[in-house]
Design brief:
It is a single chain. By secondary structure, this protein is of the alpha/beta class. The protein has six helices and five strands, in the order E-H-E-H-E-H-E-H-E-H-H. It has one domain: 3-Layer(aba) Sandwich (Rossmann fold). Strand 2, helix 2 and strand 3 form a beta-alpha-beta unit. Helix 1 packs across helix 6, helix 3 runs parallel beside helix 4 and helix 4 runs parallel beside helix 5. The longest helix is centred in the last third of the chain and has 36 residues.
Length: 223
């Protein structure tokens, strides 16, 4: 990666895929806000990356709470000046058969995996839209949400998890459709301009969540 350091926010960054994503961005010289609900664990993870020279900010956050997410985005912006990339990765995967599952567990999974992604993407998008008003169009930022092939399958003990990822899949399809319509609209307007018609252009950008499990592939996608 080359150019100025970016401001990156990753949820579920204390371990697993989230830690891998945060590590790749930090090693590339980007400034990374590492969000996780486990404060001791995320601070330990951040300490490890700092020992490697990474510029990271550990933040304890509950992705199910809009105020917590909003405060975390604001903290990242205060620390790094802006927000260029947001990765909504936080998720939970308890394994319980439906007949034994209580309502609290169902709510925990859907609120974390689906509602949490919505809250993270919304907060990040709002910040990026504001940035876009003060910069060149199209410079707002990039947002990614981690999906799963589980939305296409039925897994014993994971009805809540599969449902949450199916929700992300439906959201992704909707965003892809909107992005396609916007690209077609821009192309049509450019064609009219070249032919002496409409002189305007469409400044509306599109931010759509993408899915993926491999931190390296995601890193290249967001580069």
């Amino acid at each position: 990666m080359s150019g100025a350091a970016r401001s990156v926010l990753v949820t579920g960054a204390a371990s697993g895929i989230g830690y891998g994503i945060a590590t790749l961005f930090a090693r590339a010289g980007d400034h990374v806000a590492m969000l996780d609900r486990d404060q001791p664990k995320v601070e330990q993870a951040a300490s490890q990356l700092r020992s490697e020279g990474g510029e990271v900010l550990p933040v304890a956050v509950d992705v199910r709470d809009a105020g917590s997410i909003r405060a975390a985005v604001e903290q990242a912006v205060r620390q790094h000046g802006r927000l260029d990339v947001a990765v909504s990765n936080a998720g939970v995967y308890p394994n319980t058969p439906v007949l034994e599952m209580d309502e609290d567990e169902w709510d925990l999974v859907l609120d974390t995996n689906l509602k949490g992604t919505y809250l993270v993407c919304r907060a990040a998008a709002r910040q990026m839209v504001e940035q876009n008003k003060r910069a060149s169009p199209g410079q707002g930022g990039k947002i990614c949400a981690i999906a799963s092939g589980a939305h296409q399958s039925a897994r014993v003990g994971a009805a809540h998890y599969c449902a949450s990822k199916a929700g992300l899949g439906a959201q992704d399809q909707r965003q892809r459709r909107l992005a396609w319509l916007r690209r077609r609209r821009r192309a049509t307007r450019r064609l009219r301009r070249l032919s002496g018609g409409d002189q305007s252009d469409d400044p509306v950008g599109s931010i759509g969540p993408a899915g993926g499990h491999r931190a390296g592939g995601l890193f290249r996608l967001l580069g």
